[in-house]
Design goal:
The protein is α+β, with helices and mostly antiparallel strands. It folds into 2 domains: 4-136, Pnp Oxidase, Chain A (Roll); 146-230, Split barrel-like. The chain has 6 helices and 10 strands, in the order αβββαββββαααβββα. The strands form 2 sheets. Strands 1, 2, 3, 4, 5, 6 and 7 form a 7-stranded antiparallel beta sheet that branches.
Length: 236
């Protein structure tokens, strides 16, 4: 399974929503505290693009050499329609500064968050993340494509995803008949997470034979997974 640091790094480098919380800016428009873009720098710092006249940019500029504490809050929502769509949240706290000579579009400025500590609370559980572990971690290789891949699986391969219940054994009881559904809600290099609903509602993880490195490897892993489900003994 991915480590807490890897999961946090993946959320930062994903398209999930983010808002920057800065003490003293409690009354600011939340939309003005959402970065237009973000990435992770070579040293593990989080680089965020804001409007040059945004409250966050003004606060960082005004602070100058003083230590300005800030928290980046991330909220991850499943890209498919499913009950309880929030998949996880992460928090990264540290010191916020303005990057003076960073190239960006006119009217935009780059802010740097040096991560001091982090935590994640997601479908895997809640864990604290040390700053050095976040810096050393790598985002999941499927992060850029996860949303479209899940949407494709849900729209074009719904029958195959539903068929994965054949790998659940006794857990599949109550998942047949009208009103049942199987929705893919998470995908990473280690496997697929599916939310089953019917008489009962639960998530199930389906691990790949080995971690995948890219979309091509994912296609092979999914084919193997669907074949295994198709050949599993029927519980009906």
């Amino acid at each position: 399974m991915p480590s807490a640091a890897e999961r946090t790094r993946t959320l930062v480098q994903s398209t999930c929503s983010a808002v920057l919380v800065i003490p003293g800016l409690d009354g600011a428009d939340p939309y003005q505290l959402m970065p237009d873009a973000r990435t992770v720098g070579d040293d593990g710092e989080v680089l965020m693009v804001f409007a040059a006249d945004s409250p966050a940019a003004r606060a960082a500029t005004h602070a100058q050499d003083d230590e300005l504490i800030a928290v980046l809050e991330l909220t991850d929502v499943a890209p498919v329609s499913v009950p309880h769509r929030i998949r996880g949240r992460a928090w990264l706290s540290g010191w916020l500064t303005r990057v003076p000579d960073q190239e960006t579009e006119p009217g935009r400025t780059v802010l740097r968050l040096e991560v001091g500590e982090a935590s994640v609370d997601d479908l895997w559980g809640a864990e604290a993340v040390e700053a050095e572990d976040f810096v050393a971690a790598a985002a999941d290789p499927l992060v850029e494509h996860e949303a479209e891949l899940l949407q494709h699986l849900h729209a074009a391969h719904g029958a195959e995803v539903q068929g994965l219940r054949g790998l659940l054994g006794v857990r599949a009881e109550g998942l047949s008949g009208a009103g049942t559904a199987a929705v893919p809600v998470g995908l990473d290099r280690f496997g697929l997470r599916v939310r089953f609903t019917g008489v009962q509602c639960f998530d199930a993880r389906f691990d790949f034979p080995e971690p995948v490195r890219d979309v091509r490897g994912l296609r092979r892993a999914m084919h193997t997974l669907f074949e295994a489900a198709a050949s599993a003994p029927s519980g009906d």
